[in-house]
Design brief:
The chain has about 725 residues and is of the alpha+beta class. The protein has five domains: about 1-70 and about 700-730, no CATH class; about 75-200 and about 660-695, Rossmann fold; about 205-300, Immunoglobulins (Immunoglobulin-like, Sandwich); about 305-550, 3-Layer(aba) Sandwich (Rossmann fold); about 555-650, Immunoglobulin-like (Sandwich). The protein has 14 helices and 38 strands. The strands form ten sheets. It has an eight-stranded mixed sheet. It has a five-stranded parallel sheet with strand order 6-3-7-8-37, with helices on one face. Strands 10-16-15-12-13 form a five-stranded mixed sheet, with no helix packed on it. It is elongated and about 140 Å long. The two termini are about 55 Å apart.
């Protein structure tokens, strides 16, 4: 239905000027016609002049042709109710204190708005559409801006929007952007905020960072984090239950309103796939008991790590290290001696090899390489050997341990590719290290007290006491300071320089692998009085820590690793695949893909490419951003070799739409204010029907045709002026 009319936009000035213009032109035209003896031709020309003047006078008052359109259908009211997981938080309490059943969930508080019967009183005047604001994928995140923006596009006769939510948006544009568009369309938003703006009293087991892989018979550290919003300190007993029925407990002290991270050590008895469940008891005063337990899978394997030890002279440190690795059932050790003066390398046992691995196919089989008092030169390493070792760590995720000696051979590594890997700055003034007048201990730093490498006992205090009791060394390497990005685990007992205490045990991550610098050759002395107890445990932990990522998932010619090792929801995971040809050489070019199946069944395929375009090392990299927590199944495949490798990856954390988070009513308040709507509390939703019924009818759609500036009107005026000029010329008046 539409109405049309011609309207003028006048002012006293335009009316006065228009009348004066027309009168003046009429007088001039009459006098001109009179002087011509009232000739017919002249009269017609002057009549045209008066017509042009009248038209100009009309245009001065801005005439417009206005058409008003009123829709035939009913105005639409859209009701959007939040259906995300956070709406299950039980924190809505009646403001008048009359609730006898305690707090309700946010979903229950706004549930009447999702029922069609609630809106029956408005059916005669409005078309009411009820829709959920559902996250996608389910349970992960909520976008409030997109639904608000789309309702204005989908419904032409939109009159109002009702938005019931806790305001917890965590994806997409800010909802205020969509509110601005609704404001321009004159569509008010009636916001119904549900939930408490403060976190409820609760103990929340937020993470269980269980490693994805372990070794049978070797301790596995299972870290966990508890967040407390309780007003008082609590002491709880955390229980770690395995799928085998075994249970371990640990007492944890949790300060009020604090976050506590702790761990439990578990020694898996045998190879297999296990499930670990960590739980904490429900404390008095907790409102949300359903977030006190988490579960994670772990695969336990029988390891077979390959280690290469390279040395010059067989000093005591080398001899006891070789014995420790040779007697470790999970380690296969190869030794190479560059001892000067020997015409033939090797030794009398099968552990020794005759030469340094000559190519990628030979070197890439080693998970960890120990470099003793060895450098670059005749009868030792070559520049090509150094390049291969650097690539082995950077691309193949192997570990490298620097163990300098009193001969100072490692000083010759300066300027080689291995110089970049070294986690410390070498002191050029003392390439052969420094001897002391007596034994000096290694003192753990704060990082060293927390590190798995330096854990010689399960308890923190007991472990520190052991390190304080270990015999010290009488020599330390040529260390000036640790490089940026390195982690110092232990320092010298008293030796220091302008940079502080001399670092003796330093680690760093380089590319996909790990590097350790051991600046003392006195670790063999730790056997004093206890035999192999601490010495063997330390080096066993070093080897496994450095080879962990390389052995996450491994087949005959393929392996897969990812970082971080305990990925969290929202993190981007770096995937590294190592692929070999049937001959054993690294695959330089190929099509490598991984098919990843999420817990919900969603499937995503990621494609790998050589990092930096260099396929020499047979390494292919990709990234993956998980959108769901839980176990993800991966199938790695290479088109050229036809090989496949199945692996699993557990993404820690809970969905972004978690239960127990504080509501954000300020988000809904801003939306209502911007759109000139209203904020309605959950216990006042009965008044919503009256508020909507009181809304005036929507203003009609108006279409204006501005005649005073229309091109056709301008052309008509110019045409009349042309005819006037021609007429005057024909009458001889020009």
């Amino acid at each position: 239905m539409s109405d049309s009319a011609l309207r003028f936009f006048t002012t006293p000035w335009t009316i006065g000027i228009s009348i004066a213009l027309v009168l003046a032109v009429v007088i001039v035209s009459f006098l001109t016609w009179k002087r011509s003896g009232f000739a017919v031709g002249t009269g017609l020309v002057e009549l045209l002049r008066v017509l042009i003047a009248c038209l100009v006078a009309l245009l001065l008052n801005q005439p417009e042709w206005v058409e008003e359109y009123r829709p035939d259908e009913k105005p639409t009211v859209v009701v959007l109710h939040d259906a995300s997981r956070s709406m299950d938080t039980k924190d809505v309490v009646a403001t008048d204190g009359t609730s006898a059943t305690g707090p309700r969930t946010r979903r229950e508080a706004v549930a009447p708005l999702a029922e069609s019967t609630f809106w029956k009183p408005l059916e005669e005047r409005f078309q009411v559409v009820v829709e959920p604001v559902a996250p996608a994928p389910p349970g992960t995140a909520t976008d409030l801006a997109e639904p608000l923006a789309k309702v204005a596009e989908r419904f032409a006769a939109l009159r109002a929007v009702v938005l019931a939510s806790d305001g917890d948006w965590n994806r997409g544009r800010p909802p205020l952007d969509a509110a601005q568009s609704l404001r321009l369309a004159q569509v008010p938003v009636y916001a119904v905020p549900a939930g408490s703006p403060t976190k409820l009293p609760d103990l929340d087991l937020t993470s269980l960072d269980c490693p994805t892989m372990g070794v049978a018979g070797k301790p596995v550290r299972v870290p966990f984090t508890v967040v407390s919003s309780l007003p008082t300190e609590r002491v709880v007993v955390a229980t770690l239950a395995m799928s085998t029925g075994e249970k371990l407990v640990k007492e944890v002290r949790i300060p009020p309103m604090a976050t506590v991270t702790d761990w439990i050590y578990w020694t898996p008895p045998a190879v297999g796939d296990y499930t670990v469940t960590l739980s904490i008891p429900v404390e008095e005063g907790e409102i949300l008991p359903d977030n006190n337990e988490r579960t994670a899978p772990i695969a336990i394997r029988q390891e077979n790590l390959k280690v290469l030890v390279v040395e010059t002279v067989p000093r005591w440190e080398y001899r006891y290290l070789r014995n420790a690795l040779s007697r470790d059932p999970g380690v296969e050790v190869s030794c190479l001696l560059f001892q000067p003066g020997l015409s033939k390398r090797g030794g009398g046992t099968k552990d020794y090899i005759q030469r340094f691995p000559s190519g990628l196919d030979e070197l890439s089989k080693y998970d960890v390489v120990f470099l003793g008092d060895v450098g670059v030169g005749e009868g030792q390493l070559t520049d090509e050997d150094c390049r291969l070792l650097k690539g082995l760590v950077e691309y193949q995720a192997s570990g490298l341990v620097f163990m300098p000696g009193w001969r100072g051979e490692q000083a010759s590594l300066a300027g080689t590719p291995l110089d970049e890997l070294c986690p410390v700055v070498i002191d050029p003034a003392r390439p052969d290290g420094t001897a002391s007048d007596g034994p000096r201990r290694l003192v753990l730093t704060e990082a060293g007290r927390k590190s798995l490498l330096t854990k010689l006992a399960d308890g923190g205090a007991e472990n520190l006491a052991i390190w304080e009791s270990l015999p010290g060394g009488q020599w330390y390497g040529p260390v000036l300071r640790a490089k940026a990005g390195s982690e110092v685990l232990a320092v010298h007992e008293d030796a220091a320089n302008e940079f502080g205490r001399i670092p003796l045990l330093v680690t760093r991550t380089y590319g996909a692998g790990k590097v350790l610098y051991m600046a003392t050759d006195g670790a063999w002395r730790w056997r004093k009085g206890v035999e192999d107890k601490y010495h063997y445990r330390f080096w066993g932990q070093v080897v496994r820590w450095m080879a962990y990522r390389r052995n996450m998932a491994r087949g005959e010619r393929m392996s897969l690793s990812f970082a971080p090792e305990q990925p969290q929801l929202g993190q981007t995971i770096a995937l590294d695949a190592r692929v070999a040809e049937p001959s054993g050489e690294p695959l330089s070019r190929g099509e490598v893909t991984a098919r990843i199946t999420a817990p919900s069944g969603a499937v995503e395929t990621v494609r790998f490419a050589p990092p930096g375009g260099d396929g020499e090392w047979g390494v292919f990299a990709a990234t993956f951003a998980p959108t769901e927590p839980g176990a993800h199944e991966l199938v790695l495949a290479c088109k050229e070799t036809g090989d496949t490798l199945a692996a699993s990856m557990f993404v820690q954390g809970s969905a972004e739409e978690g239960i127990g988070k504080a509501a954000r009513p300020e988000v809904l308040t801003e939306i209502a204010q911007v759109t000139r709507g209203k904020v309605v509390r959950p216990d006042e939703i009965a008044d919503l029907v009256e508020s909507l019924a009181a809304l005036p009818d929507p203003p009609p759609a108006v279409r204006r045709l501005q005649l005073w500036s229309h091109p056709l009107v301008a052309m008509g005026l110019v045409t009349l002026l042309g005819l006037f000029w021609i007429g005057r010329k024909r009458q001889g008046l020009v």
